[in-house]
């Protein structure tokens, strides 16, 4: 049977704290962070009741590859990946905003647009756009970073600066890094026959410098279309073939769940869970161009603890 890691309770030497996020558990050890990508899955800012086997490994390894592939654009927090589900990096003081960048009108932006909204996060949108239509140039639509169980909130650049969440000077750097990272991600996706549709980046400060933190360009934080057939499907008004966890959101919506009060998460049968796992493996292999090598899941927690302790002993 496939095993999934949905909770961690490690106590590493020198550990000073732990933060359990929606899908990642982050352990603080001095100036280091040990980020464990669990197999939890969230949608509509709700953590679903069952984990997805191998999801954490896939997300961690994709993020590590893209962090390495963009380190020339801006410094990032990653130091090592001692376990398939773990990244160790420097602890940064994170900014309380997420930088969402969109190249196409789809997902939540399309749902808002279809309802009549013509301005998102201070960015004005023209009338007459269609679902999955490409913007003239990518737009940045930031959100505030919500606590666990709460929803992220859209916010404009002007409001971020006005509230003092980020200074005008630092926001300009975040904006520059965001667009450059998105351009790099778009370029790499194109090499794989994919279109990077939208994604999010998070940043923090370390030793006076702005660092890229968390994951990047994973199917949890990004949406990809297959390039082949995009134009034809767009012209016909057909749904795009995409690589993201949007298929999970669509399954939830089809079963009456959008994270609203009083709604119940539909039953996650073994068939559903395994189907989502297989889709994530497809995402990994398409995004990276590599075969997915499943890690040993006999005792995931024991394996992680051993690998992290071995890494810490070398520092």
Structure overview:
By secondary structure, the protein is of the alpha+beta class. The chain folds into two domains: 124 residues, 2-Layer Sandwich (Phosphorylase Kinase, domain 1), CATH 3.30.200; 150 residues, D-amino Acid Aminotransferase, Chain A, domain 1. Helix content is 32%, strand content 26%. The strands form four sheets. Strands 8, 9, 12, 13, 14, 15, 16 and 17 form an eight-stranded antiparallel beta sheet that branches. It has a five-stranded antiparallel beta sheet with strand order 1-2-3-7-6. Strand 4 and strand 5 form a beta hairpin. It starts with 14 loop residues before the first strand and ends with a helix.
Short description:
It contains 8 helices and 17 strands. By secondary structure, it is α+β, with helices and mostly antiparallel strands. The mean pLDDT is 94.
Which fold name is given in CATH as the topology of the largest domain?
Answer: D-amino Acid Aminotransferase, Chain A, domain 1
Biggest β-sheet: count, sense, barrel? 8 strands, antiparallel
The low-pLDDT segments are none
* Fourth CATH level, the homologous superfamily of the largest domain: ATP-grasp fold, B domain
Mean pLDDT: 94
Distance between the termini: 36 Å
Number of domains: 2
- For the record, the CATH class of the largest domain is Alpha Beta
- Number of DSSP E strands: 17
Tell me the β content.
25-35%
User: How many helices?
Assistant: 8
CATH architecture of the largest domain: 2-Layer Sandwich
Q: Structural class, please?
A: alpha+beta
* Proportion in helices: 25-40%
Shape: globular
- The arrangement of helices and strands along the chain is EEEEEHEEEEHEEEEHHEEEHEHHH
Quaternary organisation of the protein chains: single chain
Radius of gyration: 19 Å
